[in-house]
Design a protein that fits this description.
With about 650 residues, this protein is of the alpha+beta class. The protein has 19 helices and 14 strands.
Length: about 650
């Protein structure tokens, strides 16, 4: 259901504004809107407030966050953090900024310097490792190289699939250096070849320019390694790596020392600054006079008393909460607040994905929570599949516990699987007809009609149409209820009356059509057919008044909607037939293992189809055939001014 929303105005002296925002932020019940503009003609226009400290708070928040990212994470005591948080939160904005800037001055430069030195050393280690790997591979080539003064050594890395370019490079170097060069190559790893080039230094610029223009991956050794043998270079790299790791360990110790001293306070400061930034960001929505402020917003009716009591406790009579009288038109602008039991929450998610309900219309989420899993269960209707789907959904919930959208979808799937198990018991199905053949279960019979889907095709088709009639009629009734609610708005009266007439007429005409079809099809007394025809004649003018000429076409559309429920029978039949085929094919194989594999593969395919196809078709029946009869959507979601997840604001 949708919670009833109330419009409130919070008024008080400007000196109390920051503290009032703190209280509202902690309570998290008010959806704040712009109070500086008049909501109706004749109201006074208030001056919009501005927060001079927004920029300073945001800069400080960013810098403290940067310092926290630089420091190693330290285990913190939440009680100490809460105590530190409370002490810092008690500070005024000015004093808080002074303290924060003092902390930033103490830590920012020091932590950045240490972090940069560490980053440079880590990058150096990566390069040293790269050099070491290359030098180690090409050391055997050193005996083949000329030992000449005034020559430069460069290493090229070439992908194996492009090894033919080595000959092209050799020809180019011969031309550039006038054949004063050597080029030797060796396999570096499974995908790369290392080519060592030795050339006269006076051709250095031309050679490197060629490599750059040809996009050749060139590894130039650092200047301190030039002129040394590969063995000497290898030893120098090892020494450099050891000294770099020692220096990194020293820098880590320095950062750990800072973190152990400051991490708790920095966490508390980061949380407070985030909250203050959120609070200050709404200043542009607050109206003011010379001495007072006014904050306007929407609040759930059930939360009004506790919010009013919290403000009264903190400020006495200085801050008041006013409830202005609203017209139906103004009430229609209220945000939408879904307030359903936990079991309905996943279906709220589905409705919000489509479009949130308007605050004045009926919330279809509870009905979706009933019908969508029910339709899914009727279509799947297999105990084995239901158990496997339940297990799959539980594993997915455990594996991806941090993804809310997936949690909602898996909860929907679990509810559908429960109904699949129930209907599987009625149908006598466990992995198709396997359970029946094994003597574990058998189809139930009610009023002389078997629930075996392979035998009761016509009864199941009739059941599908009966469900369709009930579901569509319920949608039309809810459409009448919504239209009646809309009549409270003067500008919607005529439109609402037409909606009521059209939907009432549709109920009557469909009832008439059903009586005519039953009367003719079952050879019932002629009075049944006559009554049905009379209902149709009476309903046509109502539909024409409500929807005009196009309204009469809606009759066929509604009939088509009802016929669309035949998919419940069709998809269910397809599922059970594939399951039976899987069992029969598996049983026909002479080799038991082959038969088992074939049956398992077909059941797996059927199971995948059973998870997706019935779900999508159940969703379609609810959103297209049912919701189209009453649901408008297009509402704006209730977004209270509050913090979530330990300080993260919404």
């Amino acid at each position: 259901m949708l919670q009833k929303m109330l419009k409130i105005q919070v008024l008080g002296p400007k000196k109390d504004l920051h503290n009032v925002l703190d209280v509202l932020y902690a309570k998290g019940t008010v959806h704040i809107e712009d109070a500086s503009a008049p909501s109706s003609p004749g109201e006074v226009t208030l001056k919009r407030m501005t927060a001079d400290q927004v920029g300073d708070i945001n800069v400080a928040y960013s810098k403290i966050g940067g310092i926290l990212l630089t420091l190693p994470k330290t285990k913190i005591d939440e009680k100490i953090v809460a105590h530190t948080y409370a002490n810092l939160k008690a500070m005024s904005h000015d004093n808080l900024l002074i303290h924060v800037n003092s902390v930033i001055d103490d830590l920012e430069v020091a932590t950045k310097t240490l972090a940069k030195e560490k980053s440079d050393l880590e990058l150096s280690l990566i390069n040293l490792g790269r050099y070491e790997k290359i030098i180690d591979k090409i050391r055997p080539l050193e005996t083949s190289m000329p030992k000449l003064e005034g020559f430069e050594v460069t290493v090229l890395l070439i992908q194996k699939e492009f090894k033919d370019v080595i000959d092209i490079i050799r020809d180019a170097l011969a031309e550039i250096t006038k054949r004063q060069f050597e080029l030797l190559s060796a396999e570096l790893d499974e995908t790369t070849i290392a080519a060592v080039t030795i050339f006269n230094k006076r051709f250095s610029d031309q050679v490197h320019s060629y490599f750059f223009n040809q996009n050749v991956n060139e590894v130039r050794l650092p200047p301190e390694y030039l002129g040394k043998s590969f063995n000497e270079i290898f030893s120098l790299i090892e020494e450099r790596k050891i000294s770099s790791m020692k220096e990194i360990a020293r820098l880590d110790a320095e950062l750990e020392k800072i973190s152990s001293k400051w991490y708790t306070e920095l966490n508390a400061l980061h949380r407070i600054l985030g909250e203050r930034a959120e609070e200050l960001s709404i200043f542009s929505k607050i109206g003011q006079t010379e001495y007072t402020f006014m904050l306007a917003g929407w609040i759930p009716k059930k939360s009004l008393k506790e919010t009013r009591d919290a403000l009264k406790e903190g400020f006495g009579g200085r801050v008041i909460v006013n409830e202005p009288a609203l017209t139906p038109e103004e009430m229609a602008e209220a945000p939408t607040f879904y307030d359903n039991p936990r079991i309905v929450k996943p279906f709220e998610f589905l409705m919000c994905v489509v479009s949130p309900a308007k605050s004045t219309e009926y919330d279809p989420s509870p009905l979706m929570a009933i019908f969508l899993p029910l339709f899914f269960g009727i279509m799947v209707g297999d105990i084995g599949y239901g158990l496997i789907i339940t297990a799959f959904a539980l594993i997915m919930k455990w594996k991806f516990s941090d993804r809310d959208w997936l949690q909602h979808l898996m909860n929907v799937l679990i509810l559908g699987a429960i109904w699949a198990i129930i209907f599987g018991w009625l149908y006598g199905e466990f992995l198709g007809d396997l359970g029946e053949h094994m003597g574990w279960i058998e189809p139930k019979t009610f009023f002389g009609v078997t629930w075996n889907r392979m035998e009761a095709i016509v009864p199941f088709l009739i059941l599908s149409f009966a469900i369709g009639v009930f579901h569509v009629f319920l949608g039309l009734v809810l459409g009448i209820v919504n239209a009646w609610t809309e009549m409270s708005c003067k500008r919607h009266v005529d439109k609402a009356k037409k909606h009521i007439c059209e939907k009432s007429g549709m109920i009557i005409v469909i009832t008439g059509l059903i009586l005519v079809i039953l009367g003719i099809g079952l050879a019932l007394p002629s009075t049944i057919v006559t009554t049905g025809a009379a209902l149709i004649i009476v309903a046509i003018p109502l539909i024409f008044y409500g929807g005009g000429a196009f309204g009469t076409f809606e009759i066929m559309s509604t009939v088509t909607n009802i016929l669309s429920y035949s998919r419940i029978m069709a998809i269910g039949m397809a599922s059970v037939i594939l399951a039976v085929v899987a069992n029969k094919l598996g049983g026909m194989m002479e080799v038991a293992l082959v038969g088992l594999i074939i049956a398992a593969l077909l059941h797996t395919l059927n199971l995948i189809l059973a998870m997706f196809s019935p779900f999508l078709h159940s969703l379609r029946l609810h959103l297209v055939e049912f919701d189209s009869k009453f649901y408008q959507g297009g509402g704006k979601m209730y977004k209270p001014f509050k913090k979530e997840n330990g300080g993260k604001s919404t």
